[in-house]
Specification:
By secondary structure, this protein is mainly α. Helix content is about 70%, strand content about 0%. The chain is built from five helices and no strands.
């Protein structure tokens, strides 16, 4: 069995129907993890469907780095080549979202602040909008 991006979105919405009302830090961290992975897979699809010149495999574009960083590097390169503000914002927001997701997942001894949580939720909303703006620019 496989799942689609829409299946993942429905699962995230089912698990976290009102993410802005979550106050428990452990639940917030789990919520950010699921939102991040939804966005990650959405961005892989954006790249595959709209920027096929980038090979996201281990042997492809930016093969000397991790799969998540490759997404950032694609949008960063598009920004440099086209001077697209949407691509630049997309690169910056995606990499900050990844950094915050790492903190939420791996640095349990550190406080994950309500501000960081709110920022991640904004990224989950804004990154797809920026991706669509970038697609529309092409």
């Amino acid at each position: 069995m496989s799942v689609t991006i829409e299946d993942m979105k429905q699962a995230v919405d089912h698990l976290f129907p009102n993410p802005k009302t979550i106050e428990d830090e452990a639940i917030q961290r789990a919520c950010i993890n699921r939102h991040y992975y939804l966005i990650y897979y959405m961005m892989l699809n954006v790249i595959k469907d709209n920027f096929p010149q980038y090979d996201m495999s281990r042997d492809g574009s930016f093969n000397n780095t991790g799969s998540h960083k490759r997404v950032f590097l694609v949008f960063e390169e598009i920004a440099e080549l086209t001077e697209s503000k949407a691509a630049k914002r997309l690169a910056l927001q995606f990499t900050d979202f990844l950094t915050k997701r790492h903190k939420a997942d791996y640095r349990l001894e550190e406080n994950f602040s309500s501000g960081e949580y709110a920022q991640c939720l904004r990224y989950a909303d804004r990154i797809p909008e920026l991706a669509q703006a970038l697609i529309d620019e092409q």
